[in-house]
# Entry
Amino acid sequence: MKLEIDSFSGYRIYPAKGKLFVRGDSKIFRFASSKNSSLFLQRKNPRKIAWTQVYRRMHKKGVTEEVAKKRSRRVVKHQRGIVGADLAAIAAKRNQTANVRSQQRLAAIQKAKTEKKEKEAKRARPATRAPVATAPKISKQQMKGGKGR
# Structure
């Protein structure tokens, strides 16, 4: 026994029951009752008519025995080290007070300044050497001995 499905309401149509409607483009529609065929021909939207199966499916009616809401696993937070620092170093920095942190910053700035001064002093020393006596400066053309001879 082959059961058909109503094109409008989604109800079952038993053999020898209902109406068959063939549209101009040869698409077949089956209706369980004249009520369904009438609403279809009036171009009513079955999604907006409360008693149709499509409406019930859209508005989640009568699906209580189906799958209960899927439980999602709670996310567990983990502490991990970063490339530059391990977990212990990160925890130590987090527990430091603002005062200690500012003192460390000042010490680092002082160290950087002294290093910079030393570097500049080294750079300045070779430049202050006594100039070596050199021959009078002449251009390349004069070296070649052009017009003058």
Residues 48 and 79 are 52 Å apart (CA to CA). The chain has five helices and four strands. The longest strand covers residues 19-22.
